[in-house]
Amino acid sequence: MIKIKDLQHHFKIGKKGNERHVPVLKGVTLEVGKGEIVAILGKSGSGKSTLLHILAGFMSPETGSVVVNGQETAALKESQQASFRLENFGFIFQNFQLMPGLSAFENVELPLKIKGMAEAERKMKVQKLLEKVGLEEVAGHYPNELSGGQQQRVSIARALITDAPIILADEPTGSLDSETEKDILLLIQSLNKKLGLTFVIITHDEEVAAVADRQYRLHDGELVKGEQRHAV
Amino acid sequence: MQFKDQIDFIRQHMKRNKLRVATTILAATMGCAFLIVLASVGFGLHQTITDDVLDNNMVTQIEVAGKSDGEAEIPPADIPDAELQQIKEMAHVIAVVERNKPEAETEIVIGNRSTYSQVVLSSMEEEQKAGFALSEGKMPSKAEEVVVGYHMAERLLTEAEMEKEANGEEVAGFAGSLIGQTVELELTPFTAEGEEAVEPSTWEFVVTGVAKEPAKDWMTDAGIYADSSWGPIFNEELGLEKGYENILVYADELQNVGGITNALKEDGYYVYSVTEELGTMNVFFNGLKAGLIFVGTIAVLIASIGIFNTMTMAVTERTREIGVMKAIGAQPKLIRKLFLMESAAIGLIGTALAVAISYGISILANWLVPIIILSSLGEEDASGMSIVISTIPWQLVVIASAISIGVAMVSGWRPARKATQIDIIQALRQEM
Ligand SMILES: Nc1ncnc2c1ncn2[C@@H]1O[C@H](COP(=O)(O)OP(=O)(O)O)[C@@H](O)[C@H]1O
Ligand SMILES: [Mg+2]
């Protein structure tokens, strides 16, 4: 499903002519199979987000390759990448990234609108999904009228609505209290089991990483296989 | 994204910043309304003057003032009949009239009544084809028969009546019909000062018809229309040179006057018609209109600065949202389109309002300005005056809309491009 090979990336810091090169990824290789949950652990600033951003196509790697569903993503043009993301990825962000002007329902509906799906079909689909993630009660609420956990459920629903096979989550519970965190993790697990979705979860939190089938630790720009645990 | 959803999307965005969007629309409206109202004055004046020209001219009449055969100038009277026959046979020409007016003082006398008049010598047959018509009686069938002008009877006054009229009193003139009456025509050759006065010569004619009322109520027709065969007779009796001849070509419709005029010109005729006059006027007024539209466009451009600002702010404010859209999988093209549509919508709403307002202002101006002009001239009666100050033809609406909406989209272009270039990672990092 996902094949990352020898990925290297560095950032330039400082003014032009006097910049410093900071290597963040020094040859990361990773394979994720269909229906797997893979967690990438690491301290803050270790380059986890950078890895995810390259995987998602938000930026291009310096060297190395990312192949998703058989497609080398760096080879795609910007507009093709957008379509590719729409087809293949769902995103869950730490701070939810919901549209403040749209209701929960409309936020979930947005990717389908972008896809150009007809209204009737779209509404039905959103309705069903909202029920599945337990949001039917608050469908008409705006993000500022929702709790953190509810907001993250909306954002998960938005990631799922397009039936994309891969969900990329960057610190999905980073803004939630531990009770809510558990709820969300359980939801992720059940979605993985029921729908066979592939998850790549990025976190600094061991407990979050515990839902994963496999864990990796990003340290000093390199990915090390971590211990395997199955609990929650 | 479906078009309906795109519309929904920009409507939602515009609603979120009602005040800012409303003020920007207001500026766009003012700019566009200024453009339309300003240019409408050019269109209005053009119309007023065109109407005036068409009103005060025999619009289907083309005057032939002579011909040039390459070397010599030929006056109208010397143009051979064969050539006039050729003109008569041209397409859309309904009649060619040769009119002569003897260069002599003309007086009509009936009993103790008389009036100054003007003899028009012409072929009554051709005149009829050209539109000459009677209000009563019939056309002459013999050389001694004539038609008199519509106002002839009321102008035939006794000496006592002439005095009364000079004192400003109402006079009645000849009572009853002139049809069948015998009138005396007195012609006196004009004499230069110091020359001995010449005795008038007199002819008698029977009136068979009265011409119809002139088209304009300010015109008075007290003429007498006789057959052109009288020309040489008058000239010989009075010892006059062959006078100036008027050649008038009549077209069937106004729209054919231009074609006939040009054809005649190509054949070397000196011609004058209403299209000639309108042609030079059109050049002037089209220039004026273009100038006014140009000045008006400056106002639209000023308003466009507002649109540019609004859209730039909108893009900046929504950076995070745009980033999310792009992350989810929205095409850069879609993002650009949404922003362009938003600035176009501002232009469109502004233009629609401006058109409505401009029509209002135009109607108001056409009503108010003549009143102001008249009152400043100290005149009371506004009914006789038909000045159009401002007209808004659909062409002006189209031009102004194209300029307004075009300018709005151009000013939205850079902000829209900026939106497509937003970096997803930077945008996602922004706080809500
Ligand atoms: N655009 C950037 N320019 C320069 N340095 C950056 C940029 N983005 C990230 N970095 C640096 O790269 C490192 C890794 O960042 P990131 O991938 O966000 O870490 P993590 O998500 O693991 O906390 C950090 O040291 C950060 O300061
Ligand atoms: Mg991070």
From TrEMBL, chain A:
The lineage's top-level taxon is Bacteria
Which GO terms fall under molecular function for this chain's record?
A: ATP binding; ATP hydrolysis activity; transmembrane transporter activity
Q: Where is the ABC transporter domain?
A: 2-232
Arranged from A to Z, the UniProt key words for this protein are: ATP-binding, Nucleotide-binding, Transport
Name the InterPro entries for this protein: AAA+_ATPase (IPR003593), ABC_transporter-like_ATP-bd (IPR003439), ABC_transporter-like_CS (IPR017871), MacB-like_ATP-bd (IPR017911), P-loop_NTPase (IPR027417)
UniProt entry tagged with the keyword Cytoplasm: no
Pfam families to which the protein is assigned, alphabetical: ABC_tran (PF00005)
**SUPFAM superfamilies per record:** P-loop containing nucleoside triphosphate hydrolases
State the family named in the UniProt similarity comment for this chain: Belongs to the ABC transporter superfamily.
Official protein name in the record: ABC transporter ATP-binding protein
TrEMBL record, chain B:
Main localization category = membrane
Highest taxon of source: Bacteria
Q: Provide a GO CC annotation, any one.
A: plasma membrane
Question: Which keywords does this chain's UniProt record carry?
Answer: Cell membrane, Membrane, Transmembrane, Transmembrane helix
Q: Give any Pfam family that matches.
A: FtsX
Indicate the segments forming the ABC3 transporter permease C-terminal domain, all copies.
Answer: 293-423
Q: How does it sit in the membrane?
A: Multi-pass membrane protein
Q: Which family does it belong to?
A: Belongs to the ABC-4 integral membrane protein family.
- This protein is called ABC transporter permease
